């Protein structure tokens, strides 16, 4: 064996215990988890429960930092200027993979994030106020066709999954809608209940208002009807070939040591398995959608390519 190979083997054997020790020592202080939506909404509430459970595993608190706006992409942007030491992690909504196609940025969503694991996804739908003349989705579509560009609906932000999915639906149906973006579900629901909007496209954080008789569900976007809203048809049942659950997970800054990523993965995976977190998800018809580090990285790559096609189809790509 050549001398260089012997030196490399010796170095590797010395480095391995150091890597293990560093992973075992991490974390020695609190971890910041940046959430893409405001406090009080379904994402914030479920992520706080996840953070609490992960903190128990890690032996250090996981502190939520809400950064709403910019279509849910602010946590991913914050990772670009954060130290790659594992003490900052961020939620990665689907909108992150659309960002380079709609906005000029100097980083790559696939290469410049260390993907940790995927957590869950959303159950979406369209709701209207209880006193709305739209009793069914057919009423909604009929009004939109008769009044191009006048039917207002809100979403949790421009280029978020609710926004793009509604525009895709409108394109398939040949209707024109008036989109009004909000920073998160709490603001969106307040505007809808206050009569500032004719409809809202959102995750099922609207469930309490529906159950209280203040909102009506016109459709949901999963592959099957939701148990909580059995009378609301899916898009597919309405003849619209769309299923949307917008998976999201956690990322860390590029260059975060693999052993630290592994420690984060293991802690958050264990937190995902706790009944308290699953119960929090169930409140909003969300379910665990686990992907490990390698699978989540692959998901990022394939989603990045798919979202490019969607943005271009809707004519929303930035000018080159």
- Percent of residues in helices comes to 40-55%
- Portion of residues in beta strands equals 15-25%
- Name the assembly state: single chain
Unreliable segments of 5+ consecutive residues:
none
Q: What integer is the average pLDDT?
A: 92
* Rg on CA atoms, Å: 22 Å
Biggest pleated sheet: 6 strands, mixed
Strand order, largest beta sheet:
2-1-3-10-4-11
| Head-to-tail CA distance between termini | 54 Å
Count of extended strands: 11
How are helices and strands ordered from N to C? Answer: HEHEHEHEEHEHEHEHEEHHEH
Shape, principal axes of CA atoms: globular
Structural class: alpha/beta
Count of alpha/pi helices: 11
Describe this structure in words.
With 320 residues, the chain is an alpha/beta fold. The strands form 2 sheets. The protein has a 6-stranded mixed beta sheet. Strands 7-6-8-5-9 form a 5-stranded mixed beta sheet. Helix content is 41%, strand content 18%. The mean pLDDT is 92. It starts with a helix and ends in a 7-residue tail after the last helix. It is globular, with a radius of gyration of 22 Å. The chain is built from 11 helices and 11 strands.
């Amino acid at each position: 064996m050549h001398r260089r190979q012997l030196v490399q083997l010796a170095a590797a054997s010395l480095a391995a215990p150091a890597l293990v020790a560093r992973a075992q020592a991490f974390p020695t202080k609190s971890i910041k988890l940046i959430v893409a939506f405001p406090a009080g909404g379904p994402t914030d509430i479920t992520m706080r429960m996840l953070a609490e459970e992960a903190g128990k595993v890690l032996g250090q608190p996981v502190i939520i930092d809400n950064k709403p706006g910019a279509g849910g992409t602010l946590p991913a942007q914050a990772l670009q200027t954060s130290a790659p030491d594992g003490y900052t992690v961020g939620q990665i909504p689907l909108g992150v993979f659309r960002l380079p196609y709609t906005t000029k940025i100097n980083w790559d969503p696939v290469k410049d994030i260390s993907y940790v694991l995927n957590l869950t996804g959303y159950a979406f739908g369209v709701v209207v106020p209880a006193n709305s003349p739209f009793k069914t989705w057919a009423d909604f579509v009929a009004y939109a066709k008769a009044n191009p560009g006048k039917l207002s609906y809100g979403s949790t932000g421009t280029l978020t999954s609710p926004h793009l999915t509604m525009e895709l639906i409108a394109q398939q149906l040949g209707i024109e809608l008036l989109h009004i973006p909000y920073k998160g579900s709490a603001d969106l629901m307040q505007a809808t209940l206050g009569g500032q909007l004719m409809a809202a496209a959102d995750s099922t954080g609207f469930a309490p208002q529906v159950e209280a008789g203040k909102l009506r569900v016109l459709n949901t976007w999963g592959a099957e009807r939701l148990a909580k809203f059995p009378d609301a048809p899916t898009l597919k049942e309405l003849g619209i070939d769309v299923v949307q659950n917008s998976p999201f997970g956690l990322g860390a800054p590029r260059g975060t040591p693999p052993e630290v990523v592994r420690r984060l993965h293991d802690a958050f995976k264990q937190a995902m398995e706790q009944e308290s977190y699953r119960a929090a998800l169930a409140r909003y018809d969300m379910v665990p959608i686990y992907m490990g580090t390698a699978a989540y990285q692959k998901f990022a790559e394939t989603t990045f390519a798919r979202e490019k096609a969607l943005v271009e189809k809707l004519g929303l790509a930035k000018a080159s």
